Amino acid sequence: MKFIEKLKFNADGLIPAIVQEEGTGRVLMMAWMNEASLRSTIETGKTHFWSRSRQKYWMKGESSGHTQQVGDIAFDCDGDTLLIQVTQQGAACHEGYKSCFFRSIQEGGEFDVTEERLVNPDEVYQ
Asked: Are 42 and 35 in contact (CB under 8 A)?
């Protein structure tokens, strides 16, 4: 995996990964990867990440069943950000929305929820 030499992981050994829905281009989420989670993603075809808050390696959908099948992995010109195109099964957001970017800021600083919640997270993440 020669391309890994081109990547610039931060001081914690992490690189941001933007996850985009293949076909629509919709940004679903952003998460962190270390080298091990990137290798697992490539080997399995399912996204794996590093949780900074839990200090734990995890596969997207391991508890919810809302997995991501990888279509393409690219990296930017600086080698410091990944772009992963996926087919999303269910909600990408832990709050039950298709995308983590389900709120839009309005004039005056208010915000609107811009999509319908797909699942109640209290029922999925038990």
From this structure: no
Q: Which of 65, 69, 84, 82 has its CA nearest to residue 19?
A: 84
Decide yes or no: CATH 3.40.640.10 for domain 2-92.
Answer: no
Distance CA 96, CA 82 (A): 24
Q: Which residues does the chain have with pLDDT short of 50?
A: 126
Could you give the CA distance from residue 100 to residue 98 in angstroms, rounded to a whole number?
7
Its pTM stands at 0.91
Strand order in the sheet with 82-88: 56-59, 48-51, 27-33, 15-21, 82-88, 68-75
In the chain, domain spans: 2-92
Using one digit for the tens of pLDDT, what is the confidence trace for 36-67?
999 999 999 999 999 999 999 999 999 889 99
